[in-house]
Amino acid sequence: MTEQTTKRLEATVYGRVQGVNFRYYTQKEAQRLQLTGWVANQRNGTVKVVAEGPEDTLKAFIEFLHKGSPAARVERVELSWLPATGEFNRFKVRWL
């Protein structure tokens, strides 16, 4: 068995993703997957997500981001992979 590398995923989610419980469902999914980081609405109508954890787990999280909450309509997700910083101890909703 190989050791998984911890990575950092930064994502911007576009579409109808504000006012549809997107942040709540994102937080619950991240907690279920045992990821750390945050999710926040942006002023331009997008949602920003920063998550850290094992690469395979983050890939499963990306699948969720493409679907979102039941009322959301995700048009696209822009992704960036970075080295993990270890700065988070849980996953939370952030208010910017």
What does this entry look like structurally?
The chain has helices at 22-32, 55-67; strands spanning 6-16, 36-41, 47-54, 73-83, 91-93. Strands 4-1-3-2-5 form a five-stranded mixed sheet, covered by helices on one side. The chain has two helices and five strands. Helices cover 25% and strands 41% of the residues. The longest helix is centred in the middle third of the chain and has 13 residues, at 55-67. The mean pLDDT is 95. It is globular. It starts with 5 loop residues before the first strand and ends with a strand. The chain has a single domain (6-85), classed as Alpha-Beta Plaits. With 96 residues, it is α+β, with helices and mostly antiparallel strands.
| CATH architectural arrangement | 2-Layer Sandwich
Mean pLDDT, to the nearest integer, reads 95
Low-confidence stretches: none
Trace the largest sheet across and list its strands: 4-1-3-2-5
CATH C-level class is Alpha Beta
Number of helices: 2
- Strand percentage lies at 35-45%
Helix/strand/pairing category: alpha+beta
Q: What does the overall shape look like?
A: globular
